[in-house]
């Protein structure tokens, strides 16, 4: 009888002595509670051998829900220090444009004014934008500028003092704009390109070119000039005046009527085609030249 009772008691207690089933726990997922918004959970996954044999082998990494204050501390520590005032003043232009070894390239970025330039800038290429006006303030304290290119803008006006203080400026391109006149030009200019504008003869002052003793290349073609600009310097090698409204030239336009021995030996090319002028009617206008101008003679 005792044996039966013992057996029954053993059967009754066996379910109680069985080990509890193990709780499945993913050791790769760690939760740190304390964040107010569950949506702020950061998920981080690292993928290795992503396209090996056409399969993605994903390696699981911890999914962490950070405490709000701890996450804020980490973000603050990662913030990049603010640049100095000098760097900050120059940075916008060099982010919009490309600054490289003293050259600033601002081509086709739709700017409508000249951007602030790094003071060491020697070359500015601001072609094919929407600039309408140039002022003296645009190049204040820019002593190193040697080349400016504003081809293909909408420039209608240039203040007289805009370039006059740029003592090192050698090349200036204002081609394909809407200019009606030329401003005062810097003294060391070697090349001026103002073709494809709306410049008339009254838009060029009598002394505009007189003191430019280094000017070698002058491009004023495709404008509205009625005459050849006066007082062209001896230094000129190339003069492009084609496709204007020039109707006549005088003995003093290129030569000196009072000096028959005068030879203008530096000029290599004068283009006058596309003008309503018959060059053959003005033979004495070219006697000092080594080469006759290009244009119609009959």
From TrEMBL:
Cell location: Secreted, Extracellular space, Extracellular matrix
Record flagged with keyword Protein transport: no
PROSITE patterns linked: LRR
Signal sequence residues: 1-19
InterPro entries: Leu-rich_rpt, Leu-rich_rpt_typical-subtyp, LRR_dom_sf, Mimecan/Epiphycan/Opticin
Keyword list, A-Z: Disulfide bond, Extracellular matrix, Glycoprotein, Growth factor, Leucine-rich repeat, Proteoglycan, Repeat, Secreted, Signal
Keyword Repeat among UniProt keywords: yes
GO CC, one annotated term: extracellular matrix
GO biological process, one term: bone development
Domain of life: Eukaryota
Molecular function via GO: growth factor activity
Chief location category: secreted
Function per UniProt: Induces bone formation in conjunction with TGF-beta-1 or TGF-beta-2.
Similarity-based family: Belongs to the small leucine-rich proteoglycan (SLRP) family. SLRP class III subfamily.
Protein name, per record: Mimecan
Organism, as annotated: Octodon degus
Biological classification of the source: Eukaryota, Metazoa, Chordata, Craniata, Vertebrata
Gene: Ogn
């Amino acid at each position: 009888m005792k044996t039966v009772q013992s057996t029954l008691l053993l059967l009754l207690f066996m379910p109680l002595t069985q080990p509890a089933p193990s709780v499945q726990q993913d050791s790769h997922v760690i939760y740190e509670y304390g964040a107010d918004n569950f949506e702020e959970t950061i998920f981080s996954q690292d993928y290795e051998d992503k396209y090996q044999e056409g399969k993605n082998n994903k390696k699981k990494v911890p999914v962490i829900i950070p405490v709000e204050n701890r996450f804020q501390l980490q973000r603050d520590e990662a913030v990049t220090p603010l640049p100095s005032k000098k760097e900050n003043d120059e940075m916008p232009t060099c982010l919009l444009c490309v600054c490289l070894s003293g050259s600033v390239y601002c081509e086709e970025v739709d700017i409508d004014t000249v951007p602030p330039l790094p003071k060491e800038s020697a070359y500015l290429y601001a072609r094919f934008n929407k600039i309408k006006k140039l002022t003296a303030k645009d190049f204040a304290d820019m002593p190193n500028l040697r080349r400016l290119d504003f081809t293909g803008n909408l420039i209608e006006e240039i203040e007289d003092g805009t370039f006059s203080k740029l003592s090192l400026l050698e090349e200036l391109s204002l081609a394909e704009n809407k200019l009606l006149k030329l401003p005062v030009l810097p003294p060391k200019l070697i090349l001026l390109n103002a073709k494809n504008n709306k410049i008339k003869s009254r838009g060029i002052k009598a002394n505009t070119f007189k003191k430019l003793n280094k000017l070698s290349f002058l491009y004023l073609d495709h404008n509205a000039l009625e005459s050849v600009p006066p007082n062209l310097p001896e230094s000129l090698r190339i003069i492009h005046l084609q496709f204007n409204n020039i109707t006549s030239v005088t003995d003093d336009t290129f030569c000196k009527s009072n000096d028959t021995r005068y030879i203008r030996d530096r000029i290599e090319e004068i283009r006058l085609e596309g003008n309503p002028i018959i060059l053959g009617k003005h033979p004495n206008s070219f006697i000092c030249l080594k080469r006759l101008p290009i244009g119609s003679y009959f």
